[in-house]
Design goal:
By secondary structure, the chain is mainly alpha-helical. The chain contains five helices and three strands, in the order αααββααβ.
Length: about 190
């Protein structure tokens, strides 16, 4: 009887260890799901901020009545990636013409973009199919960009398809030659018509 009791104690110990292993795997799975949800939530929040910033630039363009009423051949609201030089005139303290206000708006807008989005930057370009339409390609850095760089095979394809920029015809890209999202950034494309 003594042998039987000691073998029963060993079985109970094994059962407890198996139960502990199953519990640990479940907790690790839940932690992975929570982490992925947090990353997706941040990306969604960043996209919402990008839309708000595009709307802010649209409001600035519409408020510039001098350029809205008499638009020049080349819009002063076009901007490349990177920081802009300081505006030549501070339109808060001095009266500005349309081009000066556009330069001031862009400097203020890009500075605000860099504050609200991590590594936030943008490119503003003219649509090649509609002269009254502007494209705003807003980019930012995210943890997801790091994860995408480490992905391979089918996982890399999923990342690529999930963050691909598509034009109005659902083709990948902006539809304008030379206008692309820089490497290491997640981008959001918005078209506006001031």
């Amino acid at each position: 009887m003594n042998n039987k009791a000691s073998s029963q104690r060993g079985v109970s110990l094994i059962e407890a260890l198996v139960a502990l292993l199953v519990l640990a795997l479940g907790i690790m799975g839940m932690a992975g799901i929570q982490t992925r949800t947090l990353v997706e939530s941040r990306t969604t929040n960043s996209r919402a901020l990008a839309l708000q910033m595009a709307d802010d630039l649209l409001d600035r363009m519409q408020a510039n009545s001098a350029l809205r009423i008499n638009p020049p051949a080349v819009s002063p609201y076009l901007a490349a990636w990177g920081a802009l030089a300081a505006a030549p005139v501070n339109c808060f303290t001095t009266g500005c013409n349309g081009a000066q206000l556009a330069a001031f708006d862009l400097v203020q807008w890009k500075a605000s973009l860099a504050r609200v989005l991590p590594g936030g930057d943008a490119r503003v370009f003219r649509s090649n199919t509609d002269a009254t339409q502007f494209g705003i390609l807003i980019g930012w850095t995210e943890t997801q960009a790091k994860n995408q760089g480490e992905a391979a095979g089918a996982q890399a394809t999923l990342f690529t398809n999930a963050i691909a920029i598509r034009d109005a015809a659902n083709a990948v890209g902006t539809g304008v030659a030379g206008v692309t999202c820089p490497a290491g950034l997640i981008c959001h494309l918005v078209y506006i018509r001031p």
